[in-house]
Amino acid sequence: MGIAALGPWATAWGVLGVSRLHYTLATRGITSKEGAGYYALDTFPARWHTVIAECLRIRRASEGGSLYGTRRTRRDDAAAFIEMVIEDAHRL
């Protein structure tokens, strides 16, 4: 992921977007990006909950600061989450 992925909206778009696609493949249903975030919290291990919660925070434009100390750490977690979800989707 490049420098553009350091921004909050790119992170939220990627994490929630891939979660939305996973939801569709797993359930044959359609959900919103926010719904996909809640699905991801219920579906994937706790290791990923911070990046998912961060993306829901961004999506809602919630007050308060980031759950991450640096944008790079957030980007790295987002990239790892996206990769994991894609790999998991291949098993559906």
Describe the structure.
Helices cover 66% and strands 0% of the residues. The chain has four helices and no strands. The protein has helices at 8-27, 33-43, 49-59, 71-89. α1 (8-27) runs parallel beside α4 (71-89) and α2 runs antiparallel to α3 (49-59). It is globular, with a radius of gyration of 12 Å.
Into which percent range does the helicity of residues fall? Answer: 55-70%
**Measured distance between first and last alpha carbons:** 25 Å
What do the pLDDT scores average to? 92
- Biggest sheet, open or closed, and with what strands and sense? none
As residue ranges, the low-confidence spans are: none
In short:
The protein contains 4 helices and no strands.
Features:
92 residues; mainly alpha; 66% helix; 4 helices; 0% strand
Q: Topology of this structure?
A:
Blueprint: H1 8-27, H2 33-43, H3 49-59, H4 71-89
Helix pairs in contact: 1-2, 1-3, 1-4, 2-3
